[in-house]
Amino acid sequence: MSAATVPLSKVALRGRWWRFAVLLIVTTVVLVPVLSTLLLSIRPGTLTADAAPITLANFKHVFASSDVAVWLVNSLGVTLATVVVSVIVAAPAGYVLSRGRSKAVSAYSLLLFLIQSLPAITAIIPLFILFAKVGLADNLIGLVVVYVGSTLSVATWMMAAYFDTIPQTLEEAAWVDGCSVFGSFVRVVLRNSLPGVLSTAIFAFLLAWNDYLVALVFLKSSNVFTLPVGVQGFFQQNQTDWSSVMAVAVVMLLPPVVIFAFLNKYFSVGGIGGSLAGR
Amino acid sequence: MATTGLNRLRLARAGVGVAGAGRTGVRRSPNRGAFTLLVLIAPSVLLLVLINAYPLVYGAIQSIHRGTLITTGPLVGLENYTDVLADPRFWKATVFTLVFTLVGVFGSWVIGLTLALLLRTKVPGGPVFKVLLMTPWVVPIVVSSTAWNWLVAAPDSPLPTLTRWLGFGDALFLADPTLAAITVCVFKVWVSFPFMMLMTSAALASVDEGVYEAASIDGAGSRQKFTHITLPLISRSTYISWILMTIFCVNDFPTIYLLTGGGPVDSTTSLIVLAYRTVFQDFQTGPGVAIAFIMTIALVAVSTVLYRQIRKVEIA
Predict the structure, then answer these.
(1) Model confidence pLDDT, tens digit, residues B27-57
(2) How far apart are CA B9 and CA B3, in angstroms?
(3) Contact across the interface for B202 and A19, Cβ inside 8 Å
(4) Which of these, A212, A269, B162, B240, has the minimum number of CB atoms within 10 Å of its CB?
(5) CB contact under 8 A, A36 and B299
(6) Same domain as A206, residue A113
(7) Do A152 and B148 touch (CB under 8 A)?
(8) Is the peptide bond before B88 cis (omega within 30 degrees of 0)?
(9) A143 touches chain B (CB under 8 A)
(10) Do residue A39 and residue A142 come from a single domain?
(11) Which residues cross the membrane (chain B) (predicted)?
(12) Is residue B211 part of a domain?
């Protein structure tokens, strides 16, 4: 702890390597579950006769023998739709939260905070009943609607927090030039907010891609399963066939990991907190 | 601590407060585009009403009826609530939810804070470690719970094999009630510490280095610097991360359900798992929704207290 708080002082080299060792051990332990998943998925399994130390046979096997391709397409579709609609709904709302100066806007911000703290299960049961009546249960569009609703609070805050960093003078200049409020929002504010939009999109992506509870309640037939429900069902049916289970798990694991690898600087959980307390 | 250090500290705090508020006094001509703003926020309000407000009202109605998923059923008043509150399973789930949340929040906070402090110093490969340590937060729970199952579930899984080899005998990580509860809590900490690490790192990054130098000159030890400078300066962010993690833990369904399903003998059944089972496995909609509402009230109460705490910190 001592050295940790004094980065600028001349810390003994020994201390540096000691901390390196601690980080190395902690990181290795933390990565064990993920590394085992990756390793098991490329090792020859009991069902695949393959002598090579590394093989893609497990993947071929699960794509041929299960609905994993269908679940993958469903998940991708639902997730992309959620990301796009979330940003389209949250960006204008975030703009209003950022620029609006009335009591109603503050009240709306507080309402979003309260909504965020509600247990998902409180909303899911009545929504399931409503969606069943209008034919949106066991339906991917219904799922997207629920996901967009779930991302609403945080996505709006994230966008508002980003818009706060864009100086109003830019817009005022546009207004002087005869631009409408909407025009300046799209052409001035939104155009300069790519990092904020990306952060919000990543948040929505992870929420939709990873959700298990809503999908579990809403989806009943295998042809509309998303990966979380599909993978879990596959896991329960093939408990001992770890090679296949882990291959399916890796299919689900890759998209978020790839996105994280390329866009990790936009993973701003701090932004949520800042905007939460600032209002 | 001498006065110079304290003054620097006060200044730094004030600075953090202003920076945290994050907005300058923006003014715009009155009424300009008020209609546009209304249009811009309309989709958000519409969704909020449909996806969040409507179910809340409908749920409240359900919780005072004895119905099923399809019918509303007869009005029973607060009977569902009194039934739930008289049920020992509810209290057992409440205790587990509290334990799970406390361990989840403070376990992940202590680890996240420690790692953030370690990563703040010059360590070879620091940025690489930071990215790798985010992995548990990025990996879908369905995947990580499967991996944890492989590691601990069966008697011949790697971890039980390890405990046998170390001479601790057979460890039934998911079959023994106490051990299963501990395993679920450890799993939750594993999933959540990266979030705390990231939040704390962001807060630490905004702390002015000069404060530490001033404190060093005043002869403050490292422990004093940590408790008197670092912790107070990041307290705002700390409270926010506690609030968010409390909400995440109480509302967490998959972490528990996917690893243990709430068992063995209900030892890892949290309130949300109990609510889910009551509605979708026992088909008792009224009591299930009542459980969800009791959770909601408790959660809003806790969040409000912590939310006020943030405001206080801002003024201090």
Answers:
(1) 444 455 778 888 888 888 888 888 888 888 8
(2) 10
(3) no
(4) B162
(5) no
(6) yes
(7) no
(8) no
(9) no
(10) no
(11) 33-54, 95-119, 131-151, 171-191, 239-259, 288-307
(12) yes
- Nearest Cβ partner of A253 from B58, B140, B151? B140
Domain tally, chain B: 1
Neighboring chain B residues of A114 at a CB cutoff of 8 Å:
300
Complex ipTM, two decimals? 0.83
Q: What is the pLDDT along chain A (279 residues), one digit of tens a residue?
A: 444 454 444 555 677 788 889 999 999 999 999 999 998 888 887 655 556 777 788 888 888 888 889 999 999 999 999 999 999 999 999 888 888 777 888 788 778 877 776 777 888 888 888 888 888 888 899 999 999 988 888 888 888 888 888 888 888 888 888 888 788 888 888 888 888 888 889 889 988 998 999 999 999 888 899 999 998 888 888 877 888 889 999 999 999 888 888 887 777 654 454 444 444
Q: Which residues of B touch A279 (CB under 8 A)?
A: none
- Give the C-alpha separation, B129 to B264, whole Å: 36
For the entire predicted model, the pTM comes to 0.84
Please tell me if residue A181 touches chain B, with a CB cutoff of 8 Å: yes
> For chains A and B, what is the number of CB pairs under 8 angstroms?
321
Q: Which residues of A touch B132 (CB under 8 A)?
A: 27, 30-31
By the 10 Å C-beta count (0-12 exposed, 13-18 middle, 19+ buried), B131 is classed as middle
Same-domain pairing of A170 and A132: yes
CB contact under 8 A, B226 and A92: no
Q: Report the domain count for chain A.
A: 2
Q: Judge whether B268 lies within some domain.
A: yes
Could you tell me if A153 and A124 lie in one domain?
A: yes
Q: Clarify whether residues A34 and A166 are in a common domain.
A: no
* Rounded Cα gap, residues A152 and A115, in angstroms: 9
Closest-CA distance, B210 to chain A, in angstroms, reads 10
* Domain enclosing residue B132, as ranges: 93-283+290-315
Q: Which residues pair with B75 in a beta bridge?
A: B65
CA-wise closest residue to B143 among A46, A41, A191? A41
Q: Does A51 contact B at CB distance below 8 Å?
A: no
For residues A226 and B91, give the distance between their C-alpha atoms in angstroms, rounded to a whole number.
34
Report the CATH number that the domain containing residue A200 is assigned in CATH: 1.10.3720.10
Tell whether the model's pLDDT for residue B171 goes beyond 60: yes
What residues have CB less than 8 Å from B11, skipping those under 6 apart?
none
Q: Is residue B173 part of a domain?
A: yes
Helices A120-133, B271-280: crossing angle, 10 deg rounding? 20
Say whether residue B152 is in contact with chain A using an 8 A CB cutoff: no
Report the CATH number at residue B223. Answer: 1.10.3720.10
Among partner residues A111, A119, A278, which is closest to B272 by beta-carbon distance?
A119
| A277 interface with B at CB cutoff 8 Å | yes
Domain boundary among A16, A35, A60: A60
Name residues whose C-beta falls within 8 Å of residue B314's C-beta, 6 or more positions apart in sequence: A277, B17, B20, B21, B236
Note down the domain range covering A49.
3-60
